[in-house]
Each structure stands twice: as C-alpha cells, then as structure tokens.
C-alpha cells in the first residue's frame, strides 16, 4: 500500500511562491506517475501537473507558472508554484498512478493512491 503525505501549503500573497512536497512510502515510487490535483470549495477536483516516463504535463491554468519535479532517491515529488494568483487557492492533493498512459494521466480516476491534501491560500 502506498502512502502519500503532502506538505508545504500555507498562506501567500498574490505574486508569491510556494513549494509543495509529497513524500511517498510503500510501493515502487520510481515506477509511478505522480500527479498534483487541486480542489477549491464547490468545484470539482482539477488536474494541475503530472510527471512520469511520459514526461511532464501541466494544466492550462498553471502552464508556465508551476513546475513539477521528482527525486526518486527521496521518494518525493515537488510542485514549485510561482506567480501565484487568488484563483490558485485550493486544497492541493498528491496522487500516484501505477499504470499511466498519455491519454489518461490528467484524469482523476486514473490515479490509484491519494494524499490527504494541503491547503494553499493566495490573498489578493
């Protein structure tokens, strides 16, 4: 069983930066696709970014501002968030996908394991 624990969330002013981390335990981390999703109150969970053997891919709303990276030696995936906007406010979730494909890597239901989430709040 894979366990995922996010950290690094918090309150930041618009234009600022945060770096989220997600530490994984159990399973074979290097073989998984790792994704970040977010969910704002009253909205559906939204794809943010993913990284795997396929490469890296980003949601349209964060392209050019966010960067996903992974350190397989530390079983950790990161999300560097720059130029933050109030609309980035959400709970951010880390997820692991055992069998990623190009067609499905952006889809919530594709992922097999989820963290508990970390709150990111961007003030205007």
Strands, count: 11
Which regions are unreliable across 5 or more consecutive residues at pLDDT < 50? none
Number of helices: 0
Principal-axes geometry comes out as globular
Largest sheet: 7 strands, mixed
Element-level helix/strand string: EEEEEEEEEEE
Question: What integer is the average pLDDT?
Answer: 96
Q: Could you estimate the helical fraction of the residues in percent?
A: under 10%
Oligomer: single chain
Rounded to the nearest angstrom, the radius of gyration is 13 Å
Q: What is the straight-line distance between the termini?
A: 40 Å
β-sheet strand percentage: over 45%
Class based on secondary structure composition and strand pairing: mainly beta
Description:
This protein is mostly beta strands. It is 0% helix and 51% strand. The chain is built from no helices and 11 strands. It has strands at 3-7, 10-13, 18-25, 33-39, 46-52, 55-58, 66-71, 76-81, 90-97, 113-114, 118-123. Strands 2, 4, 5, 6, 9, 10 and 11 form a 7-stranded mixed beta sheet that branches. A 4-stranded antiparallel beta sheet has the order 1-3-8-7, with no helix packed on it. It is globular.
């Amino acid at each position: 069983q894979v366990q995922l624990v996010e950290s690094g969330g918090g309150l930041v002013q618009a234009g600022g930066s945060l770096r989220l981390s997600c530490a994984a335990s159990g399973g074979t981390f290097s073989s998984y696709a790792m994704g970040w999703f977010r969910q704002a109150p009253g909205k559906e969970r939204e794809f943010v970014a993913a990284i795997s053997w396929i490469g890296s891919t980003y949601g349209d709303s964060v392209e050019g501002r966010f960067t996903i990276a992974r350190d397989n030696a530390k079983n950790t995936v990161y999300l560097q968030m720059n130029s933050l906007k109030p609309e980035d406010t959400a709970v951010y979730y880390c997820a692991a996908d055992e069998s990623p494909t190009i067609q499905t890597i952006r889809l919530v239901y594709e992922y097999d394991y989820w963290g508990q989430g970390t709150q990111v709040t961007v003030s205007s």
